[in-house]
Specification:
The chain has 313 residues and is mainly α. The protein contains nine helices and no strands.
């Protein structure tokens, strides 16, 4: 059985996601093309990127609503998953890159689709930054990177056919590669303004892009390879051990929510014999009601006899 996705990629959703991604690529990569005397750094452009990112995220949500009719149930699931992901992040923060939230993002993106996945990844990272106090110039870049990370899981092939162990293995492999990709992209954000490094791995504004990229790869190997390896290993272990159970739970919740089921309202039907405007109360006891008039109330009680016709005691 295929599962309905609360957010499908329609033309407007694709356009909004392409616009956000283009802004993200420019935001991450422009320092490589900056002049030596520009004095620009990501610490200065981060507030502008954050100011541009928020309305673009809203545009993604609005576009997906217009394309697929995302309703309150989808928004509720988005809030629940974002809250769980934000709560998982502090469990491994600061410990060799072990971040259990990544495996949840992979599975959620797989089940709920790329459009939902991008919004979920960005909102989860925003919520976790507020929860852990990790607000800084890196936050908008983390939101973009996590959005891409989760969206990629929704773009994997075989969404309606591949199930069981093969799907879990594919998601584990994706989680490992994407964990390294996430760390590499985030390194590009920090590498351009972190000083105190040796000349062999430091960023040099104005140098040819090729030379800077060689130094960047050396910087990643020297500073973050261990963190990325820990993140990738934990994502793979969690996906292979409990990924099948979590996938089933997410798909069951999606089926029960029936995101794409049409909603129809019908007029209330009153009791039999009652008027549509509210109707009369219960029919009085006695003879049946007829079309000639009200129901026959039956014979009048004898005042000289007790209840139910019994003689007075």
């Amino acid at each position: 059985m295929t599962t309905a996705r609360p957010v499908r990629l329609g033309p407007r959703s694709v356009l909004a996601l392409a616009l956000v991604s283009a802004v993200g690529v420019v935001a991450f990569g422009w320092p490589l093309l900056a002049d030596p005397g520009s004095g620009l750094a990501h610490s200065a452009d981060a507030p502008w990127l954050f100011a541009a990112l928020l309305p673009l995220l809203v545009a993604v949500v609005v576009a997906t609503i217009a394309d697929s009719g995302m309703d309150a149930k989808a928004v509720a699931m988005l809030g629940v998953l974002a809250a769980v992901g934000a709560a998982l992040r502090p469990l491994g923060a600061g410990t060799a890159g072990l971040e259990p939230m990544f495996f949840l993002m992979v599975l959620s993106g797989r089940v709920l689709g790329p459009g939902f996945g991008f919004v979920l990844g960005s909102v989860t990272m925003f919520a976790s930054a507020l929860l852990t106090g990790g607000v800084g110039p890196w936050m908008p870049f983390q939101m973009l990177s996590m959005g891409w990370f989760t969206m990629g899981a929704g773009l994997l092939p075989g969404a309606g056919r591949l199930r069981g162990r093969a799907e879990v293995l594919m998601l584990g492999a994706y989680g490992a590669v994407a964990a390294f990709a996430y760390g590499t992209i985030m390194n590009l954000q920090g590498w351009t303004y972190i000083g105190g490094m040796s000349s062999g791995i430091s960023f040099r504004p104005g140098d040819p892009v090729h030379d800077n990229l060689v130094r960047f790869l050396a910087y990643c190997a020297a500073t973050s390879f261990g963190w990325d390896l820990g993140r990738a290993a934990l994502t793979v272990v969690l996906t292979l051990t409990i990924g099948s159970t979590v996938l089933k739970a997410l798909r069951r919740a999606t089926r029960r929510a029936a995101f794409e089921a049409p909603v129809a309202f019908e007029g209330a039907v009153g009791p039999a014999g009652a008027a549509a405007s509210g109707g009369a109360g219960p029919v009085a006891s006695g003879g049946p009601a007829t079309s000639e008039g009200p129901a026959d109330p039956g014979p009048a009680p004898d005042p000289g006899r007790g209840p139910a016709g019994a003689p007075p005691g």
